[in-house]
Amino acid sequence: MASVTVYVDANFHGASAALGVGRHDLEQLGIPSHSLSSLRVPAGMVATLYENTHFQGWSKTFTRDVVYVGDDFNDKTSSIVVGSATSGVIRLQDVQYGPYHGGGDINAWIAAACEAASLPHNPGWVNGFRTLCLRESSYNPNAVNTTDINANGLIAGDGHPQNCSRGLAQCIPPTFAAYHVAGTSLSIYDPVANIAASSQYVRDRYKVSRDGSDFAAKVQQADPSRPPKGY
Question: CA 56 to CA 172: how far, in whole Å?
Answer without folding.
Answer: 9
